[in-house]
UniProtKB/TrEMBL annotation:
<protein>
    <submittedName>
        <fullName>Mobile element protein</fullName>
    </submittedName>
</protein>
<dbReference type="Pfam" id="PF13751">
    <property type="entry name" value="DDE_Tnp_1_6"/>
</dbReference>
<feature type="domain" description="Transposase DDE">
    <location>
        <begin position="100"/>
        <end position="231"/>
    </location>
</feature>
<dbReference type="InterPro" id="IPR025668">
    <property type="entry name" value="Tnp_DDE_dom"/>
</dbReference>
Length: 239
């Protein structure tokens, strides 16, 4: 996407490399993965992309859950079941062992990189143990699956913080946790989100066409109307 934006600016002869100007790029948490952060870093792009824990690290939001409850509580269609978190499992990195909340020793399945490329150790409990455990309903998302052939028990993974090398995600966390990062990302709410509100007011709540090309064209038409309206309302101010 960032490459395409740069190419558009080149085609329109606005700028040869728009990112060299230091223009600020923001994106929501859905884009916060290691390859994207690496791309921003290596291409020297002035980007701010928060991870999904950035509010938890911000002391200003410390009382947010108390006042308003968890965001997930408000999601009517959320079927995700919360289970005993991995923090309640006792992992000992010195001898690479792990004990579940019921005190059973777990098997180390493998050591390797997780989806974000971070060195992680994976454990699982034996199905025969979990099957008879009184906590199975709160420990496993799908406790019925334990009765299937070749089933495995609860699985958990841990990152060895001491061994792990700094990642591009860490680099972005520092940026987003800085005063400047918080200011920039806070500003994004009032710049980007109203566009989606405006488009849905124009009727774009679902696409009426199917297929990537048709959907892209339908979206472009909405964008065209949105931009014409912006020019009509604010063109003189901008000029
Ligand atoms: S379900 Fe399995 S992993 Fe979870 S507490 Fe029980 S025995 Fe331990």
């Amino acid at each position: 996407m960032l490459k395409t934006i740069n190419e558009r600016y080149q085609q329109l002869a606005i700028n040869e490399d728009i990112y060299e100007t230091g223009i600020i790029i923001t994106a929501d948490t859905g884009f916060a993965d290691e390859p994207n952060m690496q791309y921003l870093n290596e291409n020297n792009i002035n980007g701010y992309v928060p991870d999904n824990q950035f509010r938890k690290r911000d002391e200003k939001f410390a009382t947010q859950i108390e006042k308003h409850g968890k965001r997930s509580d408000h999601r009517k269609n959320s079927n995700a079941k919360s289970v005993i978190p991995s923090s309640e499992f006792r992992y000992d990195p010195t001898d690479n062992t792990c004990c579940c909340p019921e005190g059973h020793s777990m098997t180390c399945k493998k050591k390797g990189e997780n989806q974000r490329g971070i060195e992680t150790v994976f454990f699982h409990c034996k199905a025969s143990i979990c099957k008879t455990c009184p906590r199975i309903n709160t420990c496993m998302r799908n406790p019925e699956a334990i009765h299937k052939r070749n089933a495995i028990g609860r699985q958990v993974s841990f990152i060895n913080e001491e061994k792990r090398k700094p990642t591009y995600t860490d680099w972005m966390k520092e940026r987003i946790d800085s005063d400047e990062g918080k200011l920039i990302y806070g500003h994004r709410m009032s710049v980007i989100e109203p566009v989606f509100g405006n488009l849905s007011n124009k009727g774009l709540t679902t696409f009426s066409l199917r297929g990537k090309t048709k959907v892209q064209n339908q979206f472009k038409l909405y964008c065209l109307v949105h931009n014409i309206e912006k020019i009509k309302n604010y063109g003189k101010i901008a000029a």
